[in-house]
Amino acid sequence: MNNWRDKVSKDISEHLEAQINESTKYKEAYESASNKGQAQLWIAIATLSKQIFDLNLKINYLEGVLREFDKKIKESNEEIERSLKESKDDVKKNLVDAEKEMEDFVKKMPVEKKEEIKEVITEKKERKPRKAVKVKKIRKIIKLKKPRIIKKSKTSRNKPEKKKSLAKVLRRF
After folding, report:
1. Is 169 strand, coil or helix?
2. Average pLDDT by consecutive 10-residue portion of the chain (173 residues)?
3. Buried b (16+ CB within 10 A) or exposed e, 19-31
4. Is the alpha carbon torsion for 9, 13, 19, 21 positive or negative?
5. pLDDT at residue 171, rounded to an integer
6. Which of 110, 121, 119 is nearest to 143 (CA)?
7. What is the pLDDT of residue 145?
8. How far apart are CA 61 and CA 73, in angstroms?
9. Nearest to 134 by CA among 94, 99, 159, 160
10. Is 32 helix (H, G, I), strand (E, B) or coil?
11. What 8-state DSSP symbol labels residue 4?
């Protein structure tokens, strides 16, 4: 006997078998109907409808979560922009304060040193060197001491400090 299910194409045969298996769960219901085939079809339609309803619930939930996530991202972006603006304002204020302090310092200097500093500043405006270059030149002019950098000893760089025995420590005394 030829089975009609064997003639169904492979791309939907798995889906067909899944629906038949799902509808067989309700075999007792459609066996009691006068037209069993039609009852089985309606049960298959009902299971498909239930699957679609469940998928719609999941999609609606995910869409809501994505909307909330989008709102949070926008809020965090606005907060980041506000903090960046505040930090820019702080930097500008600090630069203005530093310029005022420098001007006050320059006013107290001898005339020759002032002229040299003005040359350095005008060079900066003309070719815009990095700040480090400007600071180095001004240090030379003012003859400030450079900050000392403390170097680590070669033994403490990569090796952990060895524990000394108590006897070795006591020998020193």
Report:
1. helix
2. 80 90 91 91 93 96 94 90 89 85 76 70 60 58 52 51 60 57
3. beebbeebeeebe
4. positive
5. 61
6. 110
7. 47
8. 18
9. 99
10. coil
11. G
How far apart, in whole angstroms, are the C-alpha atoms of residue 52 and residue 45? 11
108 contacts 91 by C-beta, under 8 angstroms: no
- Which position has the token pair 């930090």? 87
Helices (H) and strands (E) in the chain, counts: 7, 0
Measured CA distances, 42 to 33, 56, 78, 124, 135 (Å):
11, 21, 54, 85, 86
- C-alpha–C-alpha distance, residues 131 and 42, integer Å: 81
DSSP type of residue 130: -
Axis-axis angle for helices 10-23, 36-107 (nearest 10): 110
Provide the whole-model pTM. 0.46
The encoded tokens of residue 96 equal: 């203005």
- Cα separations in angstroms, 102 against 83, 137, 143: 28, 14, 15
